[in-house]
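[step 3/7] inverse_fold.run input=structure_tokens len=264
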């Protein structure tokens, strides 16, 4: 294992494409771009910007390890020259263990798909569970609600922490829950309470998924939604155990992909 070499981790997801440039365990640069309708262009743009931020020329990259739902699509692109691909659940497990040596389960709440992965002390996957169809698009739902309220995602989370009323969204399907959020606003409910209800709804769908697989402690949370303190609090309460967000949680998969590159 030569951890002096510089590797790029590229996580090509449904909603966003993330790239991180790493030497050993040191992050040199990172970037996120919307995946859009041209995943290859998005991957190239994210890689170039991450390299610029790291002030590393492309010639110094020893390899690119790709993960994410579109990993095979970008693997076939000669201009990217991806060295290796790994499944998302493998990258998540390796990345979570790298960031929290005591973790044995990671819950990845992505833009479209959520999953929970249990792994051993080496980060080798033991079990995986994905969300059901009705819980697809939780991250997209989160972004949509924030925009509907005229807020950033961070502002939505901060506002939810100020809520004084425990309100639930009764619809179980993420695709239909947006209409209920609008309905709550039309009824005159405080924006903070609506924000809290939306984040509680996401946490309920994720917690329901986790009942289908035994979770080994410690439990970590990855994905862009893990940046929401309110969401993590709801998840911990619903699951009746401590869960903690990982550092720069949206890049856990990309960092884990790099880890597999160092391991061979």
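[step 3/7] decode complete -> sequence:
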């Amino acid at each position: 294992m030569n951890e002096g070499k510089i590797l790029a981790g590229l996580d090509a997801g449904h909603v966003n494409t993330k790239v991180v440039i790493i030497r050993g365990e040191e992050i040199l640069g990172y970037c996120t771009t919307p995946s859009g309708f041209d995943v290859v262009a998005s991957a190239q743009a994210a890689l170039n910007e991450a390299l610029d931020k790291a002030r590393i020329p492309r010639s110094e990259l020893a390899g690119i390890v790709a993960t994410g739902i579109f990993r095979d699509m970008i693997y076939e692109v000669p201009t990217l020259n991806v060295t290796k691909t790994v499944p998302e659940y493998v990258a998540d497990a390796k990345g979570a263990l790298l960031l929290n040596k005591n973790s044995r389960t990671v819950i990845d709440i992505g833009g479209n798909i959520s999953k929970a992965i249990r792994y051993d002390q080496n980060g080798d996957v033991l079990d995986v569970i994905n969300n059901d169809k009705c819980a697809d698009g939780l991250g997209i739902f989160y972004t949509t609600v924030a925009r509907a309220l005229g807020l950033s995602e961070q502002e939505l989370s901060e506002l939810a922490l100020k809520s004084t009323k425990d309100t639930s969204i009764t619809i179980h399907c993420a695709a239909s829950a947006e209409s209920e959020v609008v309905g709550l606003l039309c009824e005159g409910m405080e924006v903070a309470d609506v924000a809290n209800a939306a984040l509680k709804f996401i946490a309920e769908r994720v917690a329901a998924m986790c009942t289908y697989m035994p979770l080994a402690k410690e439990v970590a949370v990855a994905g862009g939604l893990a940046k929401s303190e309110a969401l993590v609090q709801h998840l911990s309460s619903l699951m009746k155990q401590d869960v903690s967000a990982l550092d720069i949680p949206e890049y856990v998969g990309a960092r884990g992909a790099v880890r597999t590159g160092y391991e061979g």
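[step 4/7] annotate
The radius of gyration is 18 Å.
Residues 47 and 185 are 40 Å apart (CA to CA).
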